[in-house]
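Dear support,

I submitted the protein below through the web form. The confirmation email said the job was done, but the results page showed an empty box. After a refresh the structure appeared. I'm attaching both so you can tell me whether what I see now is the final result or a partial one.
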Amino acid sequence: MNNVTNILRKNRRILLDLNPTGKAKVNREKLNEKGFDFTYFTSQYVTKEGAVYHFCYEQGYLAMDKSWYLLVVKKESPKQQPL
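What the results page shows now:
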């Protein structure tokens, strides 16, 4: 379990490093060079159009084609007000 946690944390750090502004486009080769492991992620989000975003905690990525990825940051949903 510690190994999986370490991989997820490393993936998150890589995404943070490559996405300082909250939205970026990066080549798969760059992710591979830094040691990103595409096998591990914490959640997925599927859009109405069927696009699948993978997240490592709040840092996410979307495969745009075979070699390019869109990096994003998950926005917090507003908390519901108590009745």
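Response: this is the final, complete result; the empty box was a page-load delay. The chain has one domain: 2-73.
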